[in-house]
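Request: Give me one sample?
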Amino acid sequence: MMETADAAGWLDVTVPITPGMVLWPGDPPVELTRLGELASGDPANLSRLAAGLHSGTHVDAPSHYLAGGATIDQMPVAAMIGPARVIAVATTGVVDRDDLSGLKFAAGERVLLRTGNSELYRRGRFCRDYLGLTEAAAAWLAGQGLQTLGIDYLSVAGLSCDQAAVHKRLLEAGVWIIEGLNLRWVEFPEACFDESDQSKLLIPRSLLRGDSFWQP
């Protein structure tokens, strides 16, 4: 994870895919196996990666929770390319409807929620006290016409909330969900992630008929 912007002013808000990384409980571990080594006389370095599709920073396709829903290869490019608005959410426990009061959104906005979750990655284990949305908050956001919603931990839904219900509220409204962001270094909450007129890029690789894919 980049700790500062690079020379061009870009911030990496993804979590690297690596063995031993923090995962959702029950997800398969990340395995990285070296198949070829230049040092051993092989013509090239070659590795094999095995991991769950919801490891690290990833996008939830509608098919993750909706029967017959769009798969990740059917995601519109516009959902991941363009300005994104970062909003700081200061609360404890869960993010409820009242925590979002006063916010106004334009149709088609890409919104990233920065909570205290980004600090949790440094603990090196899954943290049950992460902040996530209640169904009421998800229902309200689903009605705002958002194109994309991101959050800085492994689920958009609070651990004590109904995971399926929260996801379905957003996915049924056509909102593409980004989970596992690291927004620790973003210092301009409630501002456009792109402070200039240039677009920023956050897009996962496509996987035919996949329910998710991670940002490598």
Observations:
- The chain has one domain: 54-214.
- The beta strands are 31-36, 46-50, 58-60, 85-88, 110-114, 148-151, 176-179, 191-192, 212-214.
